[in-house]
Design brief:
This protein has 382 residues and is of the alpha/beta class. It is built from 14 helices and 13 strands.
């Protein structure tokens, strides 16, 4: 299902890894958006292929050094801080002289284009990992600027056919540099802490099952649907993630009603990796009522933790599952059906085990980092 995208693409003649120059991954989001695991897993798997990799991000690891500041929003210091970080990136690139830069992009902007032009001036081959395509369908940047950004890339990686089709509908001229490579799994993340221990650390009771909603809260995530459905579900809802606009005004009544019935645990903040581990370990199921998505890292993470998933039947979610019975789907936007699916899954342990087993199998086979690294190696070898 996730074969390398060959619709008019260049041939992928494999070159020995020792003939591939060193690689730098640039990721301004990093630990703030959960990409630290993505970067380090890709770097580690490429290292097994004898490819040298460095990561410029906002955290420290075997591969990464903190070039960008770890902060939320755009304060008065954002622009000068970003300029300082980019200057540091350019200096490091000149010193390390990589053959390739892999750049994480969630949207194409004038700023990202400026960064890419500087990278190209150093005769470095540029590879985008284009996670989201919002900037391609909004009016805040011209088609000319977006096309210019795409033209700067030597190769473009997206995670599924849904994203590649959407990209080609708007910019059909990029098919020769477009490749589909799936998002890798998180199977090496879960700790050995038990569900009971995780609940105790979070101060959660054992009197009810736990339904988890995890990640940044914004309109496209469909939290309002879940809050409506939970009124008739006999379980506690855990909401773990920060509000994009730092406001709960859109959900105040629903949140208040759930609180009155002792059915809500809300942690509306940035969730550290350590705390995330506890929330995922405590959950009986996770609900992803998204109204719009390109690829869900939260879904892959939940499956990696062995948490059964309830998700809206959006095209990317359906593509992700393929013919594997690994997700309990509900009709997008239908809170009544969502309620039914949650209740069904909570009382049906056998069904939960089937979803967990099938999800694990899918992640091991299709979202394996070693296979993903081999596909990146093919791109680097062109």
């Amino acid at each position: 299902m996730f074969e390398i995208f060959l619709r008019g693409c260049k041939s992928m003649t494999k070159v020995p890894a020792n003939k591939i120059g060193n690689v730098v991954i640039i990721d301004p989001v990093g630990k703030k958006g959960g990409l630290d695991h993505y970067n380090d897993s890709l770097a580690s798997s490429l290292k097994k292929l004898n490819i040298e990799v460095k990561v410029f991000s906002n955290y420290t690891s075997e591969f990464a050094e903190p070039v960008f500041k770890f902060r939320f929003g755009k304060s008065l210091l954002f622009i000068p801080s970003m300029i300082f970080s980019l200057m540091k990136v350019f200096k490091l690139l000149k010193a390390s002289k990589p053959q390739f830069v892999i750049l994480h992009l969630f949207k194409i902007t004038k700023s990202s284009n400026s960064l890419c032009r500087e990278v190209k001036k150093q005769n470095i081959k540029l590879i985008y990992i284009l996670h989201d395509l919002d900037s391609l369908i909004r009016d805040n940047i011209s088609d000319k600027e977006m096309f210019a950004g795409l033209q700067l890339a030597d190769e473009i990686v997206v995670h599924n056919h849904f994203s590649s089709d959407l990209l080609l509908q708007k910019f059909p001229g990029v098919e020769n540099k477009l490749t589909i490579i799936p998002h890798g799994n998180f199977l090496d993340i879960p700790t050995k802490i038990s569900k009971q221990e995780a609940k105790e650390k979070l101060g959660l009771n054992n009197s009810s099952l736990k339904v988890l909603f995890f990640g940044m809260i914004k309109p496209s995530k469909g939290l309002n649907l879940l809050l409506q459905a939970m009124m008739k579900v006999n379980a506690q809802l855990i909401i773990a993630g920060r509000m994009r606009k730092k406001s709960t005004s859109d959900f105040n009544n629903q949140l208040s009603n759930l609180k009155k019935e002792d059915k809500l645990i809300a942690d509306l903040n940035y969730i550290s990796n350590e705390k995330r581990d506890l929330y995922f370990k405590s959950a009986d199921i996770i609900v992803l009522p998204y109204r719009k998505i390109y690829q869900s890292g939260v879904m892959i993470m939940a499956m990696s933790y062995g948490i059964p998933v309830v998700a809206s039947d959006l095209t990317p979610n359906l593509e992700f599952a393929g013919n594997i019975d690994c997700i309990e789907f509900f009709k997008d936007g239908d809170s009544i059906q969502l309620e039914e699916k949650i209740n069904f899954l909570l009382v049906n342990e056998e069904r939960r085990e089937i979803l967990k087993k099938n999800a694990y199998s899918l992640l091991e086979k299709t979202h394996n980092w070693n296979l993903i690294a081999e596909r990146f190696q093919q791109i680097l070898s062109r």
